[in-house]
């Protein structure tokens, strides 16, 4: 009675776990037009109408078996797009994902389909239909990487890609855990029930997790062949304790094969191998052994040093008969053709026994598109038309990119181009755009986008930006002008405001900004301020250089002069601020000064020389000219400037500098200047070849070139300097 109630409790527990498991099953009958419950399993199947909007429902010709879910299939368009089913998952929970394919007899089609199946960005399988009546089942055991997965079909080689069913089966938390699940899915290559009672595969409800256990009686090419002689099939109706690790179904464990002649050997092909695999062997002693009987054996082939020397004694290893013993191999490398054999040890009385095996390939999880880029695409989708959104399924880049994006070939892939011209987008450009560092082209023109530009300062690869014909506002940030690779920026017909960053107007970037009424170029005043600032800095730099040069020159000079006897004289002259005869003469003929450099002559000295400007010898627009005689007897012409151009000291100085350096046969040499009390005076050499009168009025044999003309020429030359 105690035992009975114990079993009852176990049975109820088992039942409740099964029930809770089933409610979480997702079973999609692709191509079906209605939802239904399969009476043979009690499983609820839903139509994929509303889940998959592409392709068409096709009635399968001559389906094999009576499975309701194989009466129809969904044929998907033959093009270069991908078609994806999105399945909701719990992140980090383990699932069995299964896609099945039964094509049925060929109708008018020329050939059976061949295409690719993806789970997220990971290539899952190449589906090749060779047998119309066979159900090709592809299973992947995953730990969900996020809150949903995408199963995608694409890349048809021949025929029309299609799918019959898509199933999601949650697993118990600890089932199929591996050391590598962060980076690898487990792609099921073989799951075989040995000693099966029929050739039908065993699955739900016999397996509460709805795994498909193929029968070893199933005769199909390259599947479980070459049983050794003496192999017998055994079965039991007794319960088997299987509640450890992978929870193989009791029904699978109730049958087995035994190598009565001491050897069990089989051969089968593993799709996509050689590869690293996770391998399980399921053993349960289902024969009642006599007291003198023992069953001990070893895995002889394939030979793995770590495993093959271990002796299997099922009842001992499992601590009892009718109890699961499940040795597994976390990471073994297997060939495409898996030949395996168990051989009894010498001291064993019975041959080896095997209930089931399961082999899965480690499938490297391929990187999905950088999530920050995906976030922007999702945000853009959310502000676009409903009708435009439906075709964008699965990963934006892998295996084939969405129509409106271009991707890099990096790992993970990044979005390099967004092309959404004229797609009826309404709202703001997603601010997350700031993280799309790989973006080179952005086409959002011809929409109804509003609000300011998002921060694009980090999008340094950006080359072409089309934002014209929107309702964008705000200012153009100055970094827009310094994006290093920007070639084109189109913002016509928007409502941008403020100043255009000057760098956009240099011609380096094709910049189109018509019809932004409140957008203007930088104001003149600011530009001039900047120009002046720039020039001033330039001038300062030049002055600094000149100053340093002159320091060097002066030092050299001083050294040179100190070597000469004339040191004292020259030094006193050079440092003297008082103009004097000697200063004048040295200025005119000194060997260490540039010839023609004019000198400052104080006003009192000029007043004295000209006798208080009493003798006017000419007058012009520039002012009057007076005759004078310096202390040393030199005759001079003194011009008092009246020109407004010369008002500013700077310009006056410039003119002096210019005139003092011009050597022209028609020009009178400038010998000095005076600038005092708003008076600006130039002192020229008085002409001695011929009197002034001669020059002014002309002589018989010389073209008259008057003094005033000469001064005018000089003055005009100087005036060029004054012009802004
Ligand atoms: C999952 O496995 C644990 C033991 O690891 C067991 O206690 C639990 O009942 C199992 N749950 C289901 C739903 O099978
Ligand atoms: C099938 O069931 C799903 C979910 O239970 C529902 O969304 C869908 O509308 C149903 N489809 C039909 C054709 O009844
Ligand atoms: C199950 O085993 C019994 C012997 O224990 C045998 O008579 C019977 O034929 C077996 N059934 C099948 C389907 O192999
Ligand atoms: C398995 O073992 C091989 C070599 O022993 C190692 O390279 C590999 O990373 C391991 N894991 C997987 C999942 O392949
Ligand atoms: C093996 O089973 C016996 C009872 O059949 C039990 O007493 C013993 O603790 C078990 N040993 C282990 C290691 O589970
Ligand atoms: C801006 O709008 C005007 C009229 O609305 C249109 O003619 C012009 O082509 C638009 N500019 C661009 C660049 O599309």
CATH class of the largest domain: Mainly Beta
Our count of helices gives 13
Gross CATH architecture of the largest domain: Sandwich
Content of β-strand: 25-35%
Total beta strands: 42
CATH topology heading of the largest domain: Jelly Rolls
Total number of domains: 4
Bound molecules: 2-acetamido-2-deoxy-beta-D-glucopyranose
Radius of gyration: 49 Å
Low-confidence stretches: 1-17, 565-596, 691-702, 720-724
What is the general shape? elongated
Instruction: Profile the largest sheet.
Output: 12 strands, mixed
Mean pLDDT across the residues is 84
What's the N-to-C terminus distance? 117 Å
Helical proportion, percent range: 10-25%
Structural class: alpha+beta
EC number: 2.7.11.1
Organism: Citrus sinensis (Sweet orange)
Transmembrane segments: 531-554
Keywords: ATP-binding, Glycoprotein, Leucine-rich repeat, Membrane, Nucleotide-binding, Repeat, Signal, Transferase, Transmembrane, Transmembrane helix
Polypeptide structure, described:
- It is a single chain.
- It contains 13 helices and 42 strands.
- The protein has 724 residues and is α+β, with helices and mostly antiparallel strands.
- The protein folds into four domains: 23-171, Jelly Rolls; 190-197 and 209-366, Sandwich (Jelly Rolls), CATH 2.60.120; 373-522, Leucine-rich repeat, LRR (right-handed beta-alpha superhelix) (Alpha-Beta Horseshoe); 585-722, Phosphorylase Kinase, domain 1, CATH 3.30.200.
- The strands form nine sheets. Strands 1, 2, 3, 7, 10, 13, 14, 15, 19, 21, 22 and 25 form a twelve-stranded mixed beta sheet that branches. The protein has a six-stranded mixed beta sheet with strand order 26-27-29-31-33-35, with no helix packed on it.
- Helix 11 (649-659) crosses helix 13 (707-722).
- The longest helix is centred in the C-terminal third of the chain and has 39 residues, at 524-562.
- It starts with a helix and ends with a helix.
- One 2-acetamido-2-deoxy-beta-D-glucopyranose is lined by residues 17, 172, 174.
- One 2-acetamido-2-deoxy-beta-D-glucopyranose is lined by residues 180, 184, 276, 331, 362.
- It is an enzyme of class 2 (transferase).
